[in-house]
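Residues determine shape. Next comes a sample protein:
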Amino acid sequence: MNGSFTGGVESGGLSGTGFSAGDVITLTVTASAGGDMLGLSDLTNFASLIPPTGAAGTYTYAVPADTDANFIIGGARNNAGSIFSWSCTPAGGANGGGTDSDRLGSVQNQGSAVVANTSGVAISSAVDGAIGAALEAGMTPSEQDEILSGPLSWGEFIGLYLEYHIAAQDGEQTGRAEFVKQAHAIWYAKSNAGLIAVKVSGPLMVKWMTYSEYQQARAQAQTGAGSQFAPEQVSSVRQRADEAFAALGYAAVKAPSRGTLTPESQWIPWADIRGTGFEQSDAGALKGTQINATAGLTYRLSKNVVVGVFAGYEHFDYDFASLTGKLKGDGGTVGTYAGWQITPTLRWKGMVGWTGLGYDASAGTAAGTFDGSRWLFSTGLTGSYALAAFILEPSADVFAVWERQTQYTDTLGANHDARSFSSGRLSLGGRALAPGQGLWGATPYLGLYGDWRFASNDAEPSAAPYAGIGEGWSARVTGGFSVPVFATGTLALGGEYGGIGADYKLWTGNARLTLPF
């Protein structure tokens, strides 16, 4: 099945039968006039294999299995201004990768690069999330005031007090004064009236105050002269608070209202699981799934510096229609990381990890197993700035992987040399968060990023049809939310859709749980 339509003249064959698994049929639209189109159909089974199109480009169909069906070139071809061509490359031909052993090498080379890139994204993203959660929790309320935007809710205000000051209060005058200076600054920067929380003794008491009352209370607390905060005035404070809350339908607050981490939590365990789907745009030349589970433990050296260790597991399963191949396997990862809150609006993160892998590959009648050893490095900067009721987080991140694979002999007796490759991604973009705007105090977010992929491969057969993640730019959108759980923990759920503008598509779903102690 090879032919063309040029200058109003058609030549070559329009149909064919007896196709083998791995045969690749290619349609090329160079120019189209008068509504002319080019397509491919399975006449025997009445199926459209490549829908008719007049858009310039190259379209391919990889035959998934041996078949006696009759394939036919379809679409209108009536105008001399149209330039079309079509061809079929046998599975054993130049684009089929030669022998089954040659195609096995292509499955190895192309598939393992997809695995490495997917794991690089999953692991570095999991660690970045853990670092961000730990550093955000280490900030004082006055520092968070530079980031938080919009009026704080009743629960958020009381939550901030409990999270950052309850351990320092204990009925001490200095603790109360520090609370007035810091926690109140957050509320009154947003509103002319608000709630004041005072822990004189016993349960935390809450009272509504105007701005002028706040100024007076702050002055009294700083000098120790005011009766509102004195230990001997516990009953009157409690009475006034109870009266205020009775009118509002609330009672005294005794527990945190949100699950943000506290500075007193020196150790912060976390876990992240991510599922990724991949599909090549060219008629499913490569598609598959991958699971990455990562868990770690963060230690707070100071409110601005955290370090940690992590371990992970990955499992992958990919199919190559164009090579009649398959690649599956799993691996384990260990590593370490660090984060630094440079300013209240800028943080840095860095990490390194090592992964040991076991691969199982096949193509046609050839099959083989081999091992891999991979290094992952990642670093980046993330900002955090207020805009109306939102927080904007621009970021610049990069990760790189270097992998070495062992030599092996396949089932047909062909030798496959040890090989090495490297790849990575530079990501620029950001996301917008709406703190506390979702149900149950959830914080939803949306993000948009531009990704530049880069790679180096020392063993890719030049005759093999390429499948996988190529070099160059693509776009990615993200979305999700985080919600407080278990008093001080956080559960984050999110998703991504990547490869926009490239010839592949990536979709991801992930969940992360953080529980400080």
Notes: The radius of gyration is 31 Å.
